[in-house]
Amino acid sequence: MNSHVQRLIEERDCDTVRDLLDDDASLNELMMHKLISTRKALEELVSAVEALYRTQSSPTCKTSTAWSEMYIQAMSGELFESTIFEEILNSVKKLPSDIMHGLLHDLGEIFHDEDLEKVITNLDELTRNLDEPEVPLRSQYDVHHETLRTTVVAQKVSLGKNTSTLSAQDAAYTKIVDRTFSELQKKFGWALINPQNLFLNEALIYDSKSPHREVFAPRPRFAIERALSSPHDYLGCECCGGAESGLSATQPATAILYQLCLESGSVINTADLWSAFWIIVGTEGSKDEEAERERVL
Q: Which residues cross the membrane (predicted)?
């Protein structure tokens, strides 16, 4: 909520901020709307984890990460920029057309994305007219298109790689692979966000092992110290002033004494403490100062 209001202020939308502060109906409407969008974003995040886990099962992927580990990294906002994500996504480029076909259909059931559906349609059209249907298409990133080259120069052997010429159908499949990689990267980037940045994520996510401790565990010392040091936070009256107003005679006497003790050292002179207290609460212009002090005591 704090971040949302701060963003509205930066956008100079002060009227909306005022409505949220003064109108309960406007605040309730915002809560209901944002809860729906936050829940949807979390569902997309979990779907992205499932999609990445299925992609990992392809034969070209060398990583083997548990679903739970992916989920933990996703919930901490670290999965999208991790080496796990990079290795799994790069393995997609090396898939032959038959395995790519099955993977895209699995991912299409998870994402329900129109752009991804178009890629599937293009792949179906390409594989339907193969010269050799039993032989899958391979992209330029596949190791089958690379050969080692050995060169001897000045009695030194150097190894290099040669890339064989692609057929027309393999070249067309390479374009589909590049498009698939781009669409998946965009989709994962949109879904694998940091959930801690979502509005009202505290209502839907437990981010600690004991999420209720800070709310339900009593902290009487903290409450009493805050009440004595900042009585305005609890009283809400104009006479006590805000947090930056300092000591004033209108504050409760106990609060004044407590704040004076905080400003003192380890050893407190009672006479000095009383003098400082009297300077704050004493009546200015009193004719009988001694009688006034006794009355206050």
A: none
